[in-house]
Amino acid sequence: MNGSSPEPPRTSAQDTQSEAYADRLRNLSGARWKQVLDVQRPYRWNLRRQGLGRTLDVGCGIGRNLLNLSADSVGVDHNAESIAECRARGLVAYTSEEWQSTPEVAVPESFDGMLLAHVIEHVMPEHWEELVSAYLPYLRPGGTVMMICPQEKGYTTDSTHVHFTDGTQLADLATRVGLVIEKNYSFPFPRFAGRFFPYNEFCLVARKPA
């Protein structure tokens, strides 16, 4: 990344736990034009082609990605209203507190994949390793981790983003928590598009050593 990081107007990251934030996610996903144009189609394809298998979706929000993962996948989020929305959609999801107190679900090495989509940029860097490491024990050896973060334009669209996170930083994080990087790329367009197209993403795919 050249120059300074793009900076959106700031609010507390705790806002992602609020009912208002869950409402924002509902409103964004329910926009009529997005449904008519099926703008999520390439992103669904990008997710499904990874072959994540049974996936732990960390920071699942209202279930946009969870809907497109294998039916036995599970979501976790610290926003209780978002989890209620997931359940209303027929998805299996737990608040962070419920996850920690539900040992019959939080079984070590029971997931084939782990997804952190649009999560890391909501967390200050000093907490990244703690966040990822807290959930890695539930991923089987040889399992796949996928991390997704917005590029410059997308970063400015959400006031709860606290740290612009590019592919290099994602790779560094993956290495620090012991993952083996397999792919690190820009999607759906080349990297330069992220400066003006809000839906361009950094995507990193890594593997937990067997």
From TrEMBL:
The keyword Chaperone does not apply. Keywords: Methyltransferase, Transferase. InterPro entries: Methyltransf_25 (IPR041698), SAM-dependent_MTases_sf (IPR029063). The keyword Nucleotide-binding does not apply. One of its GO terms (biological process) is methylation. It comes from the Bacteria. It holds the Pfam family Methyltransf_25. Residues 56-143 form the Methyltransferase domain. One of its GO terms (molecular function) is methyltransferase activity. This is Class I SAM-dependent methyltransferase. It comes from Nocardioides seonyuensis.
